[in-house]
Design brief:
Rossmann fold; 21% strand; 6-stranded parallel beta sheet
Amino acid sequence: MSILLLGGSPQLPSSSGRLLAHIGERLALQGYGIRKLDVRDLPAQALLLADYADPAITEAVQAVAAAEAVVIATPIYKAAYTGLLKAFLDLLPQDGLAGKLVLPLATGGGHAHTLALDYALRPVLQALGAKQVYTSIYANAQQLGWHEERGLNFDEPIAARVQAGIDELSAGLFLLAGPREAAAVLPPVRTPQTQLQPA
């Protein structure tokens, strides 16, 4: 089962990018195939003009299509997810997240933006056909800490929420794998052949 980490921050490094990487590392330890895509790395002109002929754009859209789950991270600017992320989501086909599990993440400056993911991003993910959009994880600047040697650290409520999000996504992938594995081992359906009797 493959998971795409989709970063929507225009800055490097960023709190949302660090949170995304942390969750990706935890999921990789569980044996999932992890691929990372930072939208800021795509060619700006091709992204803004929706140039599907650009190889980088084609590869990015195909990366979404190939994943069973997508973890999306964005900072919150002016009570919404970034325009950079919106530009990329607009490139996806109408059913670009069909059958996929999605875990949204966001970081912001304070508690005022806690519901921004649910009001701004969740409807877009659902409109793209996501099979399941899990409970959003939002952390403000006071809840995330960064140390050059120890890395990312959370306060207790966010640590619990991050673990819950990882557990929910893992459980969803386990359930998603079940029907696919069952379908893979089912014998092909044989249609009865009519026996011709000699005249």
